[in-house]
Amino acid sequence: MLNNKYRQIGAKIKYYRQLKDIDQTKLANMVGISPQYLSKIECGKQMPSIQVLLLIAEKLSIDAAYLISDRNV
């Protein structure tokens, strides 16, 4: 169940990152994390901390609550 949630959050992050034409390395640098960590988040292999989730949402100009909601992209 949690793995599905991780994948859902990661898919939303990836979708909006690509929509804004930002590559993983650039977003990772903007947030202050490694590109490898961002890749794991987007693949649903790792859940970001609340702080990282908020920073990602801010940099992508999306609502952090949407990222953790059950609404799909």
Question: What's the total number of strands?
Answer: 0
Rough outline: globular
CATH fold call: 434 Repressor (Amino-terminal Domain)
Radius of gyration: 11 Å
Enumerate how many helices there are, as a single number. Answer: 5
| Average pLDDT | 95
Spans of at least 5 consecutive residues whose pLDDT stays below 50 are none
- Give the percentage of residues in beta strands: under 5%
* Helix residue percentage: 55-70%
Structural class: mainly alpha
CATH class: Mainly Alpha
Quote the distance from N terminus to C terminus: 19 Å
Written overview of the protein:
The longest helix is centred in the N-terminal third of the chain and has 18 residues, at 2-19. Helices cover 68% and strands 0% of the residues. The chain has a single domain (2-68), classed as 434 Repressor (Amino-terminal Domain) (Orthogonal Bundle), CATH 1.10.260.40. The protein is mainly α. The chain is globular and about 30 Å long. The model has no long low-confidence stretch (mean pLDDT 95). It is built from 5 helices and no strands.
Concise account of the structure shown:
The chain is built from 5 helices and no strands.
Task: Jot down its keywords.
73 residues; mainly alpha; 434 Repressor (Amino-terminal Domain); 68% helix; 0% strand; globular
Walk me through the topology.
Layout: H1 2-19, H2 24-31, H3 35-42, H4 50-60, H5 64-68
